[in-house]
Amino acid sequence: MLQTDIDRVRTADIPPQGMIINGQWQASRSEEVLDVISPIDGRTFTTIPRGTKADVEAAVASARQSFETGAWRNMPLMARKAILLKWADLIEADTLALTVLGVRDNGTEIGMAEKAEAGSAIRTIRYYAEAIDKIYGEVAPTADSHLGMILREPVGVVAAIVPWNFPLMIGAWKLAPSLAVGNSVVLKPAETASLSLLRLVHLAHEAGLPEGVLNVVTGTGDVVGDALSASMDVDILAFTGSGRVGGLILQNAGRSNCKRCYLELGGKSPNVVFADALDMEQAADATIGGIFRNAGQVCVAGSRLLVEESAKAEFVEMLNDRVATFRTGDPLRIDTQAGAINNAGQLEQIEQHVETAVSQGAELLAGGHRLHQETGGFYFAPTILDQVAPESSVFRNEVFGPVLSVTGFSDEMEAASLANSTDYGLAAAVFTRDLGRAHRMVRSIKAGVVHVNCYGGPDITVPLTGMKQSGNGSDKSLHALDKFVDLKTAWIAL
To answer: Is 454 a catalytic residue?
Structure first.
């Protein structure tokens, strides 16, 4: 992707968007819209429908009808597979326009967006398409008088609620496996990052997905998300977002049809650096990338640096040297290392987190302030807070911004204790040359993914699973298919 290509499409006019229900673009029944404000410059550049409960009911009814008539779930597996593969091909052909559109909408730097958004969606859809005809049922070890078969069947209507930080990547994690096994879906994108997912679903219909199988309702969480989680006709809800909203979803599910809910609720991931790390320079690079990519708006961001006291001063100096030359700015420039904060409200929250941390005794080593205010956009400097106490709020609470807290430890036992001393358990990292220590730390840390001598990089072949208040269920890998199927036993007398 060249800068000249990006510049050619970055200012394209985007007409007002519509929801997609039963394969058709539609306005909201209320005819109200939401402004789409670009975090690059703070300006409105299009609108999306402000969905209502009636819109949700129409989308769910469309999904239910498509499921019951069986146009998708009863389609021969090879035909279903071919449509998903064609969908991935269409996304690949549209990568430039799709990526630039998404960056204008959510602010992720273009270099990351190309790989982690469109690129990830392509790989994910192809992965689950190829899995369609390779997942078998089971035959139980019964007596000769009976045959016991265990079948996997699609559940029905899936609601998928996707956040604004990586809409295509996380959207594909939910859409591809649920569609691969034959479900119908209602998708709710984040109100501040809907455009790329609307385009993605349009491409799915162009690939041949039957009408009604994949529907999109745009709008606010307190209306659209609430209606989906309370719907009596949604069988499964898959959500990525905050713990507060996850709790509301569970309440609605319990008050309605007790639908199965799979929740990925963020993290406060520890990045543990021992003095015997294989390569301190590489560990410093990984630490910078692990917290400052996408301006820290990453569920698995390594936002807590736990570093052995004997190496702490030198390691923090390495980080400061890197932050001094770190480029935060226009996310549509290919030399930008971190783009914009997604929205003005999130920018204010990040600022408040830093102010509170300093008031609680943290030492501000770098950043801590807004950048490029003259542009009208939403930018925050990469920030390092040292001397962060384990009882402080910035140590325990997710900031979801480019803010790294630094805490020292004296030995392996203290490192593990500090790593586990939050309510979250999504990700972690350990840097050490001691193989035994690495294995002990992997066992000790309560997190769904533990990186060793790296931060980031796990691909679609392995699951991302939340522990503690980071959620439940798995995104990615073949294990994700389990969320979207029912097991049925056939017990046959012979």
So the answer is: no
Angle at 40 between CA 34 and CA 44, to 5 degrees: 30
pLDDT in tens, 366-422: 999 999 999 999 999 999 999 999 999 999 999 999 999 999 999 999 999 999 999
Please check whether residue 333 is in contact with residue 377, taking contact to mean a CB–CB distance below 8 angstroms: no
User: From residue 75, how far is each of 21, 179, 188 by CA, in Å?
Assistant: 21, 12, 25
pLDDT at 310 over 90: yes
Catalytic residue among 191, 261, 299, 308: 299
pLDDT score recorded for residue 1: 84
For residue 400, the SS3 value is coil
Collect contacts of 441-445 with beta carbons under 8 A, ≥24 apart.
441/272, 441/412, 441/415, 441/416, 444/416, 444/419, 444/420, 445/270, 445/272, 445/416, 445/419, 445/420
Span 9-46, pLDDT tens digits = 999 999 999 999 999 999 999 999 999 999 999 999 99
Residue 174's CB is within 10 A of a number of other CB atoms, namely 28
Q: Does the annotation mark 299 as catalytic?
A: yes
Domain boundaries 3-265+471-489, CATH class: alpha beta
CATH topology of domain 270-459: Aldehyde Dehydrogenase; Chain A, domain 2 (3.40.309)
pTM over 0.85: yes
Q: In this structure, are residues 270 and 441 in contact, taking their beta carbons and an 8 Å threshold?
A: no
Among residues 117, 191, 264, 351, which one is catalytic? 264
Cα–Cα distances in angstroms (integers) from residue 37 to residues 40, 69, 106, 334, 473, in the given order:
9, 40, 9, 22, 33
One-letter amino acid identity for 473? Answer: G
Domain boundaries, the chain: 3-265+471-489, 270-459
